[in-house]
Request: fold
Amino acid sequence: MSFNAALVAVLALVVLGCAVSPGVAKGSNWKIGEPIVTYWAGPATFMELDDRAAEQIVAGGWNLGWARNVEDLDTYYRHGIRALMMVNIPDINDPVQAKALEEKIKLVRNHPAMYAYFIGDEPNASAFPALGKLIAFIKKLDPTHLSYINLLPVDAPVSMLGTQGDTATAYKEHVEQFVKLVKPELLSYDFYNFLEGGDNDNYFLNLSIIRDAAIKAKIPFMNIVQAIGWPGYRPTDEHQLRWLAYTTLAYGGLGISHFRYDMGFWKDAATPTPLYWPVSRINRDFLTIAKQLQSLESIGAYHCGVVPKGGLPLPERAIFTLENPSQNVLLGYFGKNANQPTYVLVVNLDYKNAVDTVLVGQGEMEVFNSSTGLWQAFAGQHIKLDLLPGEGALVRVR
Reply:
């Protein structure tokens, strides 16, 4: 399939909401719209952005790109891609910098491709008060678009977190202070767990802390995941990237971002890596399933088999369980209200081997086909699920 044909086949339109989300910056009317699938270090940042690159983004299943200027916005708009405009962190106490930021916002805020302003990455806790003022400044000029800041991971130095205590306690306080002082509309963090010597066991701890904070603040969250190897970290494969996508979904995430696009998916401007097309399928599955979960409450994420650090075991008298509860499977519970789970995302936590598992419910169920977007009904209260390494299946009560 050519990139032009792929573009026609998978082009996603921008969907923007307008209701105010509780707990965010005053004056905001931003909503996430279509769940986010994006990247770091790709077109418009570490690679040239042109129509060919935009076609590659769309064919690969990403729906949010990075922009430097209005010309980038125009390119994204031609291809139906939302744009993250880089403004970084100007000093709004400086009249010259404040005026320059105001002029840039006025220039881009009404562009149909605009989705968000990129403010900064992994700020030290000492910067939180200034970042809160900056976001408030932007909101006065543009209440429609997201002001985006990415957080440090759970195992960052306490000198940067600005808090004390054990790993979990210090990080929880860091995130709470960020929400209180900055008033973000989206929680985002990065955690890279595929180390050369094994997996970093803080992955689910970080995921659970961010999930809890996002639910408390009533805002969505995004997970920036490892898509490459570098000194100290091993390269990722298709199964690991699928595992990262489905574990994020099971914990209630509505966004995923790959670090890095330029090294993970493209060798050069014309040559995709072997990961490109498998990840394009994973990206589409992520987006299709996230849309199904978007209107639901994330009720719980429960681990069968081995319970990792930060994870929760399946509760007694669970609505959904496994015929063999010793399997390493994650069950993400969802429902229209927090007291009644009616959906479950069943995730194979083995990213090396496929697994056959039997889900047990309390009524007849149906399984979602992410390729067709259709639900398939099953008779009885047991469903056999054949899951690829790291794959998940979305099931609901009929």
Q: What stands out?
A: The chain has a mean pLDDT of 93. The chain has two domains: 3-294, 298-397. The longest helix spans residues 276-293.
